[in-house]
Every structure is written in structure tokens, then in C-alpha cells.
């Protein structure tokens, strides 16, 4: 009997060891499954959060760019600055007008000196008034051109900033589109 008892005792130890090993394997598998589920769930949550943050950022940047563009146009219209290529044509016309005023002033000055030499005082006074009027127009035109040029530099800086912001919006939008496509592939619902 002792051999039967030894066999039963050995058999029960084997069952106990096997049961403990099976329990350990079962717990390990459960932990692995929970770990994988948690990783997949957390990865999905991070993915959704990243998509939401990108959507919000693109919307904020777009709204900010729209506001800046409206400010830019208001400032440009308010100062009469050069905004487009068509307005640059106006600047060219103003510069040609300035050249014509210079030529006209020189012509009147020459006539003024000739009339002074001949002693025609009535016409000298008329030429003096014409010359003063031309000088006044010329100075006003110079001031206008200079003001437009100075302000357009400020506007060009604003425009460059807006272009840079638009590039950022485009990059973020492309990334957002890639994320949305990936979400579709993964089966993650969109809002």
C-alpha cells in the first residue's frame, strides 16, 4: 500500500503542480489580453485626441487668418496703399506725373528767367504763381507716393506673415486629412 499511497501522493502533487502552472499561464494570458486591449484602446484615444486637436488648431488658424486678411484690406484701403499689381500701375502713373510736373516746373522757370531779363513784370508774377502752384502739387504728390510706399512695406510684412500662416494651415490640413483617412482605414468613427 505504501506504493499505492506514494503513487496517489505523487499523482496529486503532479495535479497540484499542473493546476498551479495552468493557473499561472491563464493569469499571464489574461494580463497579456488586458495589456493589448489597454494599448489598443489608449492608442485609439490618443489618435482621436490628436485628430480633434488638429481640427481645432486648423479652425483657429483659419479664423485668425481671415481676421488678419480683413484687417490687411482695411488698412490698405484706409491708407490708399499699393495692394495689387493694378495698384502698382497707379504708382507708375503717379511717378510719370511727378516727372511731368518736374519738366513743367523747369519750363516755367526758364520762361520766368527770360521774362525777368526782358522786364515784363506782369507776366513774371503770373509765372511765379504758376511755379508756386506746381511746386506745391509736386510736394503733395511726393508726400503721397512716399506715404504709400512706406505703408506698403508694412503691408508687405503683414502679407508675408499671412502667407507663412497659410502655409502652416495647409500643412496641418494635409496632416489632418491623412489622419482622417487612417481613421477610416482603422474603422474609427469621425465626429
Compose a concise summary of this entry.
With 191 residues, the protein is mainly α. It contains 3 helices and no strands. The two termini are 75 Å apart.
Q: Largest beta sheet, briefly?
A: none
How many helices? The count is 3
Which of globular, elongated, flat, extended, rod-shaped describes the shape?
rod-shaped
Percent helix, as a range, is: over 70%
Structural description of this entry:
By secondary structure, this protein is mainly alpha-helical. The protein has a single domain, classed as Helix Hairpins. Helices cover 93% and strands 0% of the residues. It is built from 3 helices and no strands. The longest helix is centred in the N-terminal third of the chain and has 78 residues. It is rod-shaped. It starts with a helix and ends in a 5-residue tail after the last helix. The mean pLDDT is 79.
Amino acid at each position: 500500500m505504501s506504493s499505492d499511497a506514494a503513487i496517489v501522493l505523487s499523482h496529486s502533487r503532479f495535479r497540484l503542480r499542473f493546476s498551479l502552472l495552468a493557473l499561472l499561464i491563464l493569469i499571464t494570458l489574461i494580463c497579456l489580453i488586458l495589456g493589448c486591449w489597454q494599448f489598443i484602446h489608449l492608442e485609439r484615444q490618443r489618435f482621436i485626441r490628436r485628430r480633434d486637436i488638429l481640427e481645432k488648431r486648423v479652425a483657429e488658424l483659419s479664423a485668425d487668418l481671415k481676421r488678419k486678411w480683413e484687417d490687411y484690406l482695411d488698412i490698405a484701403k484706409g491708407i490708399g496703399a499699393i495692394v495689387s499689381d493694378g495698384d502698382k500701375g497707379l504708382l507708375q502713373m503717379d511717378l510719370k506725373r511727378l516727372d511731368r510736373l518736374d519738366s513743367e516746373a523747369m519750363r516755367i522757370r526758364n520762361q520766368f528767367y527770360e521774362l525777368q531779363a526782358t522786364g515784363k513784370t506782369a507776366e513774371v508774377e503770373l509765372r511765379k504763381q504758376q511755379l508756386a502752384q506746381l511746386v506745391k502739387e509736386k510736394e503733395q504728390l511726393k508726400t503721397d507716393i512716399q506715404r504709400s510706399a512706406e505703408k506698403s512695406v508694412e503691408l508687405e510684412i503683414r502679407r508675408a506673415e499671412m502667407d507663412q500662416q497659410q502655409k502652416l494651415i495647409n500643412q496641418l490640413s494635409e496632416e489632418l486629412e491623412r489622419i482622417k483617412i487612417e481613421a477610416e482605414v482603422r474603422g474609427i468613427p469621425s465626429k
